[in-house]
Amino acid sequence: MASANMVGAIVLLMEIIALVSGVRFQLGANGLSMEYYMMSCPFAEPIVKNTVNAALQSDPTLAAGLVRMHFHDCFIQGCDASILIDSTKGNTAEKDSPANLSLRGYKIIDDAKEQLEEQCPGVVSCADILAMAARDAVFFAGGPVYDIPKGRKDGRRSKIEDTFNLPSPFLNSSELVRMFGQHGFTAQEMVALSGAHTLGVTHCASFKNRLKNFDSTHDVDPTLDSGFASALSKTCSAGDNAEQPFDSSRNSFDNDYYNALQRKSGVLVSDQTLYSSPQTRSFVNAYAMNQAMFFFHFQQAMLKMSLLDVKQASQGEVRQTCRVINT
Ligand SMILES: *[C@@H]1O[C@H](CO)[C@@H](O)[C@H](O)[C@H]1NC(C)=O
Ligand SMILES: *[C@@H]1O[C@H](CO)[C@@H](O)[C@H](O)[C@H]1NC(C)=O
Known about the structure:
By secondary structure, the protein is mainly α. The chain has helices at residues 2-22, 44-58, 62-75, 106-119, 126-140, 173-181, 187-194, 226-236, 256-262, 269-276, 281-289, 291-305; strands spanning 201-203, 243-245. One 2-acetamido-2-deoxy-beta-D-glucopyranose binds at residues 172-175, 277.
């Protein structure tokens, strides 16, 4: 309990700092700003923070779910909460794509939205709630603390066919650089964002191709450490859905992920390729050596991601319920 109080006190302190520093932030060209809800819903930030904190206290594995959900949201149609929409009779939504396998934490967003609707009905968008929740999840898992502008509006489209644009776990470094480049990210930013894999797990189905009949000349992926390959095979003996953490501390936000890549113990092809490829290896080495640098670059890249194709007032709405487009 003492530690919960501590976290509460820190959250409060952060709010004060954010409020004070927000005053000098200029309204951006995209209509977003740090103090967007200062008048209309002053407790928006603490409500989301406390909801995320409470949820992570009972299930710390949800941090990874929230970060991943925000990423999936922003990469498809921009950060417009399209990932939160439930399928209906006539429409299969993004969240029902096979790519959604490890998306978790929808209930946290619903909880926060419910409280916000009570305090300030129709004001805080689901896209902002998700962006704040992902940011807070990183912090509560031990990662960097940073402020993000608010004012995103919620989109009115969510279709399963749009999700083919998500990066697959089988991509190599040059494919990743190209794909993230289409969203305006540099190779270094892509490597920093990949560090989100410091949280969470993947499933055997996403890496079993590396363990058997890998290609015409190798049975096992040659970029994979042989001891680690045995560990992965053991995981897969429980089936395609068996969970495998990306690094040794699945609920702590740290730079251990990059250390694992240096040991040839990256789980996915799309992880290990960052070290195997000369194009990106120097970034992996830098982040493995310097966690503070990783944290700083990660927060900058997350901020940039949170602004991808954001919808302004005329292009979107504030949903009443995050799972349903307003009628
Ligand atoms: C993910 O998609 C599958 C279908 O591919 C669906 O059965 C499942 O309910 C979805 N999961 C979530 C959390 O929406
Ligand atoms: C990555 O994959 C693409 C297409 O599959 C291939 O053309 C390219 O040579 C690969 N790059 C590396 C560095 O292996």
